[in-house]
Specification:
3 helices; alpha+beta; 417 residues; rod-shaped
Length: 417
């Protein structure tokens, strides 16, 4: 039985022509054409070329035609290409193997192809071309970098096309787990990634990966920003350091968007980096950072409170560190010993405006000092002796302070241990 194909008029003409040719050829040979092999089913990627064979024995003066049955289109007849689509070609190997070639395969080329011989009744066989398309992410329908307020709902969308239909997988770029409600997962499937009550822990880059088994797989990077007002916490709110040393004050910061930061000294004076001070901001992650303030060559007036401040569009915050003096040993500038410098520091704290310091040559600096009766000490030997005695007493006090600190530290460790 001939296969009836819903087709235009030229297919009807082909059938009439085939019947006439078949009647004329019947007396010329005793062998009827036969298909030597089945037509294979072929899978091809879009954009590539494909050839589909039809092998016929004893064709004689019969004719072979190729028909795209899904579109009811006559493509070729014998050596001629009937369709006006230039991507189709036909060739044969000594009239036995007839090749239908399709260049730059498109999705519309998929479907059933019939190889037909104009015998009476007609003989035909079919093969199938499956066109596959690697996944492609639709940039117009897929989310771009997204910003949300902390505590709100976030939804990221990823739309991809391809054949077969791609599967979408979401992962974090840093390979951390994704928190979804009460569970944490390394990956999740679906075109949408929905996160309720977003926290700063959700902030980061997410990868939407489209896979359909046809290489290459594709992905898109989407950054989820979570906005919140700055938060500061201080590792050590009370820091002690000796005179003449350098000290670093630290503040830990969390903020998004990026915060404007600065340091203030007691009294509200903003600190600017110079030879005395150095301010450094270090970014650690998407929203974490550290603020460092280095104070060089501590002097008595450097002790006091220091405040780190952070501001962004959602708010501001600050943290305060108290810097105090602790005893220490070591050389000082201008030829003065640490004990002498400590004595000067002590007098400044007690309200003395002038101080007598002993120089390298044993002489006096300043105008001298008065006793309780108001008499002025001018004897060099007496002044020297008094100063040395004061220095000795101060060193004894410092030694007792250090010893007391060591005892307190030991008792604390003992209680915690």
């Amino acid at each position: 039985m001939p296969v009836l194909v819903k087709c235009p008029a030229y297919l009807v003409l082909w059938w009439v022509y085939s019947s006439v040719v078949a009647l004329g050829s019947h007396t010329e040979t005793s062998f009827k054409p036969e298909f030597a092999e089945p037509i294979p089913n072929i899978t091809v990627s879009a954009g590539r070329d494909v050839s589909i064979p039809c092998v016929v024995d004893h064709l004689g003066k019969y004719r072979v035609a190729w028909i795209h049955t899904d579109r009811s289109t006559l493509l070729t007849l014998a050596n001629r290409v009937i369709t006006r689509n230039s991507r189709y070609q036909v060739s044969h190997n000594s009239h036995r193997t007839w090749w239908l070639r399709i260049k730059n395969v498109q999705m519309r080329d998929k479907g059933q192809y019939m190889c037909q011989i104009n015998t009476s009744p007609m003989k035909n066989q079919v093969g199938y071309i499956k066109v596959v398309v690697p996944p492609k992410i639709d940039e117009t329908l897929t989310s771009k970098d997204t910003e949300v307020r902390e505590g709100e709902h976030a939804s990221l969308k990823c739309i991809a096309s391809g054949s077969p239909e791609p599967e979408i997988t979401w992962r974090r770029e840093d390979e951390q787990a994704i928190s979804l409600g009460n569970k944490k997962v390394l990956s999740t499937n679906g075109s949408y990634l929905n996160i309720n009550k977003v926290s700063r822990l959700h902030m980061g880059a997410y990868l939407c990966i489209a896979v359909n088994g046809i290489p290459p797989a594709v992905s898109k990077r989407i950054f989820l920003g979570v906005n919140f007002s700055p938060m500061i916490w201080i590792p050590n709110q009370l820091i002690g350091a000796p005179l003449g040393t350098d000290v670093v004050l630290d503040c830990n910061l969390e903020a998004h968007p990026i915060a404007v930061t600065y340091w203030m000294k007691e009294g509200g004076v903003i600190i600017i980096s110079n030879r005395k001070y150095e301010t450094v901001d270090i970014s650690e992650e998407n929203y974490k950072g550290q603020l460092h303030l280095t104070i060089r060559d501590l002097e008595p007036q450097d002790y006091g409170s220091y405040t780190c401040v952070a501001k962004n569009s959602l708010g501001e915050t600050e943290g305060t560190i108290r810097l105090y003096e602790i005893p220490g040993l070591g050389p000082f500038t201008n030829g003065n010993s640490r004990a002498e410098y400590s004595a000067k520091s002590e007098k400044l704290r007690n309200g003395y405006a002038e101080n007598s310091l002993i120089g390298n040559n044993g002489g006096k600096e300043g105008q001298g000092s008065s006793d309780m009766s108001g008499s002025l000490h001018t004897d060099p030997e007496e002044s020297k002796t008094g100063t040395e005695s004061s220095t000795t007493r101060l060193e004894d006090i410092q030694f007792l302070q250090v010893t007391l600190l060591m005892v307190v530290s030991f008792l604390t460790r003992l209680a915690l241990g």
